[in-house]
Amino acid sequence: MLGRRVRARWAAGLLGVAISGGGLAATPASAEEAKDSESQYSYMAKLDIGGQRSCTGTRVDFWHVLTAASCFADDPAKGFHIPAGPPKLKTTVILGGLGGADLSEKPARVEAINLVPRNDRDVVMVELARNEGYLSPGTVPAKSDVTLARFGHAQDGEKPHRLQTFPVRLGQVKDTTVDLIGRKPTDTAVCEGDTGAPVHKQTSEGLELVAINGPSWQGGCQNVPATRVDDIQDWIANAGSNFVLSERSWDDARLLTPGYFMGQPGRSRMDLFVIWKDGSASLFQGNGNSDTGAPFAAEHKLAGSGSRWKDARAITGGRFTDQGGAYGTDGLVVRWADGGVTEYTYLDQFGTHDEKTLRAGGGDNPFWKNARLITTGRFTENGLRDDLLVVWENGSTSMYTDIHSKGLSGWKQLSKADKTWTDATQIGTGAWGHSWEVDRVLVQFSNGQTTMYPLPDGDKGWEFPNNIREAGSAWKNVRLMTTGVFADAQYRDPTDALIIWNNGNVGLWPRIDREGTHGGIELVVNGSPR
Fold it and tell me: For residue 288, what are the CA distances in angstroms to 265, 299, 355, 487?
């Protein structure tokens, strides 16, 4: 399924083991034997770069292939340094069919749209266009061989679309490269199309990636060192993620809300649902890695311009049942332009599910057209984020409890009309690093003041404000703000604020609490990742 990120295992410390053991012994294998086990290698990819050269790659998740940066260099003989961004030449990535690694059978051809190179070694992450269905990397049986797998032109005339595998030993290890030793020199010779091919170890837990083939310079078959990837695991995991937000112009974001739409609390960070000014909608998938500066793994485009989402006027994510959907646990509440209010019990990468009308739109009663800001919170005993907090146009505030079971009948006024709340521009809820039984509300005002409130008790209104940003602060330049779990997947309750500034930059303020903010991270600056 498309939403589930699948990744080959990285070989931590594998090269050190090989050195101390004097190398890994080779066992008989050949290009012919690869035909009998092709289904093991469905993670393999072949790259056609402008029809001028070809390379081999490794699929490391649904959106990215790892290969050699020199594949994209103007002159690979002069070095591997290339600029980040779209490839200069149209690049097609060819993925094998379910039946195996013969690319002449049921290939999927996907365009490469972005390159993320490293500067210290011959490695690049190739981002794939996201309008195709992809195959998941295959599960590899347990073996102890270290294997070189490739699609290039073999010296014996093997067709380039047929996978070849060769057992190798690991020789001299340097900072960024490692020598490969085969049974005979031709086993490790890099021919045209072999650049970027993976060297892997098979274990009881699956595939471990050790290195990738160095450049052949497209000039015959040569023995060259392979490029190490065992020591850059974090970079590989995060390289694609760093570009997810910067591929969008955040000046165009109109509404946004977080939720566990595709993931589970404690396993991944919250996803982010965004409605754009042209009426299109996207779901940004929360990341499971440890990089605070890469909160999202991928963008899933849910609707094109002019869709029904153009009529949404306020949105909020929430958890409305304790069952969970096919992927995540959370859904969405929408206040529409005609005053209608809809609950979608679940939202995921395929759209909305289990629609429930909480309030019909149109008619003579425009009451809900006056709902200016909405957010869900955990304010009642069931522990779900299914209580709806509303800020009305006149500055009054209300709460509707347990909306999934009660609809909009569980109404309670929290405060009467008050000019203070007419100046509120954004609201969110969270635990803010504490074990409160109910959430507290974070309110951002037009003058830059940002205040944390406990829920009102009785008819006393909003008491005990705790300012985390004072009036006149830089937060007066906030255009959109939402609160959620964006910095650390281990947190289950919202503690972070994601901010879209008036200039289109995107910032993240992790682990806000009663003491205030504790430093922010700029995720997108002038359209570029941090």
Answer: 11, 15, 29, 10
